[in-house]
């Protein structure tokens, strides 16, 4: 077992406890989320997070939380709030230290639990029946009695202390298949559940995979495949971070994937990394970065032979132009997206684009029109997205329904927006996505002054009950 230096026991953060005052941890967490929305941040603060802060377990918040706390308590520094200065809270380890304190616990546990055979079992849990193959599993079954079989059997019962691969350990096709299976499993689970419940375990898997790259020995072919799937895994975990409101972590993970793509000379992976970077930049309020990243993705994808990929990338660019209120450039990019989409599917379409169908095209188009402030077309496109979305993609149905409520409210259809909002609230029970919950929350906040309208009152009541559940 590799040596990892652990910190001394944490000291309680009494200053943050004082800031909470008479509010309960749950009430304080709600005030943190409200403050985040005021400045355009997305944080998934709950009572557990507040407890971790006050116990001193989180010695330095990530950048998103730091901005929110500074907004809540103007003129304060991290030290004023009882936190350790950034950089001073990191733990030493054989691997490079993680970027912030919140991720440190996840990364340390992953370092201890990493290994070639930990990759798939780290995610072998809560797999919906519809997502399982005919054998009931997404991953190849390991022979009984082997190390892989023993660990796979234990994987469903909880965390298993897998050994860290030793320097020079042989990595072959089996390990590559395991990483590939893990990527597919994350995508299926995200389609059903959303990101919030997946992020930490997926992070375990990612850490293990980079252990394989850094510590193992392999052939040139295995290296090529392992780099490609490691990059895809970094993007998948980055998306989970994005969808669960961890925008700084998502940006770092996408950068990791882009670096992997550049080192491997993998144009397909580079296009994927830039595609997600563009989407993240749009959501983070950096529209020019969104446009530049989308254009870089389109350049990388030029020779890949996938019209559907070029369609999605044009939509990513359109989203950036919409936020910049450049109507002409946005409409031009939307037209390019539609033209490329109508070219149809091909064998060159990336596997990760399985989500990109007519419904997704409509949903992203609706978001562009809404960002332009033109809510009539936005509403019609959002309706199409809901009607076209397959029923088993619960997360996307919740997303499009939340988008429709937002667009209906934008055009002044208050009763329709409230009724649609109530439908979105009903779907939230099946989805764990901070991003989607934030959309519904923003609509609820805008409707509060209209609480005298019966449909609005019903929506707000359902929303409050959903928050309490």
List key phrases describing it.
two-stranded parallel ribbon; 469 residues; single chain; mainly alpha; 2 strands; disordered N terminus
What does this molecule look like?
- The chain is mainly α.
- 64% of the residues lie in helices and 1% in strands.
Number of strands: 2
* Order of neighbouring strands in the sheet with most strands: 1-2
Spatial gap, N to C terminus: 42 Å
Strand content: under 5%
Low-pLDDT parts are 1-9, 87-164
Determine the mean pLDDT: 79
Topology record:
Elements: H1 14-20, H2 25-38, H3 47-55, H4 63-72, H5 101-113, H6 118-121, H7 147-155, E1 169-170, H8 173-193, H9 199-215, E2 216-217, H10 220-243, H11 247-264, H12 267-283, H13 287-301, H14 307-323, H15 327-341, H16 358-371, H17 375-388, H18 394-410, H19 414-428, H20 434-447, H21 454-468
Parallel strand pairs: 1-2
How would you sum up this structure in a few lines?
The chain is an all-alpha fold and 469 residues long. It has helices at 14-20, 25-38, 47-55, 63-72, 101-113, 118-121, 147-155, 173-193, 199-215, 220-243, 247-264, 267-283, 287-301, 307-323, 327-341, 358-371, 375-388, 394-410, 414-428, 434-447, 454-468, and strands spanning 169-170, 216-217. Helix content is 64%, strand content 1%.
């Amino acid at each position: 077992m590799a040596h990892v230096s652990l910190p001394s026991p944490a000291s309680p953060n009494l200053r943050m406890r004082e800031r909470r005052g008479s509010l309960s941890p749950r009430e304080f967490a709600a005030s943190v989320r409200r403050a985040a929305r005021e400045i355009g941040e997305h944080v998934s603060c709950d009572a557990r997070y507040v407890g971790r802060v006050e116990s001193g377990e989180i010695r330095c918040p990530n950048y998103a939380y730091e901005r929110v706390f500074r907004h809540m308590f103007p003129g304060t520094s991290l030290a004023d709030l009882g936190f350790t200065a950034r950089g001073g809270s990191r733990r030493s380890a054989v691997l490079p230290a993680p970027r912030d304190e919140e991720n440190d616990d996840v990364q340390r546990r992953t370092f201890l639990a990493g290994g070639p055979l930990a990759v798939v079992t780290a995610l072998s849990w809560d797999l919906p029946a519809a997502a399982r193959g005919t054998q009931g599993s997404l991953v190849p079954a390991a022979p009984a009695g082997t190390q892989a079989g023993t660990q796979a059997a234990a994987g469903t019962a909880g965390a298993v202390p897998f050994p860290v691969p030793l320097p020079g350990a042989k990595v072959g096709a089996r390990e590559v298949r395991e990483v590939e299976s893990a990527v597919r499993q994350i995508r299926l689970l995200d389609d059903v559940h959303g990101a919030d419940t997946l992020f930490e375990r997926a992070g375990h898997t990612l850490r293990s995979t980079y252990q394989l790259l850094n510590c193992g020995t392999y052939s040139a072919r295995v290296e090529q495949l392992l780099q490609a799937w490691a990059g895809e895994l970094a993007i998948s975990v980055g998306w989970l971070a994005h969808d669960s409101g961890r925008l700084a972590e998502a940006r770092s993970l996408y950068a990791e994937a882009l670096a992997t793509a550049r080192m491997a000379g993998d144009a397909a992976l580079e296009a994927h990394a830039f595609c997600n970077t563009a989407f993240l930049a749009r959501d983070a309020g950096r529209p020019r970065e969104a446009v530049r990243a989308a254009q870089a993705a389109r350049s990388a994808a030029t020779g890949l032979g996938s019209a559907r990929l070029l369609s999605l990338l044009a939509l990513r660019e359109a989203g950036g132009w919409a936020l910049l209120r450049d109507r002409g450039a946005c409409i031009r990019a939307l037209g390019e997206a539609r033209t490329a989409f109508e070219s149809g599917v091909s064998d060159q379409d990336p596997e990760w684009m399985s989500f990109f169908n007519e419904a997704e095209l409509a949903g992203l188009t609706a978001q562009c029109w809404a960002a332009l402030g033109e809510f009539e077309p936005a509403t019609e496109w959002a309706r199409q997205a809901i009607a076209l979305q397959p029923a088993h993609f619960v997360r996307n149905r919740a997303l499009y329904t939340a988008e429709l409520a937002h667009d209906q409210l934008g055009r002044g259809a208050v009763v329709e927006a409230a009724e649609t909002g109530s439908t979105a609230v009903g779907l939230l029970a099946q989805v764990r996505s901070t991003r989607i919950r934030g959309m519904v929350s923003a609509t609820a906040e805008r409707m509060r002054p209209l609480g005298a309208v019966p449909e609005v009152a019903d929506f707000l009541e359902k929303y409050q009950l959903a928050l309490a559940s």
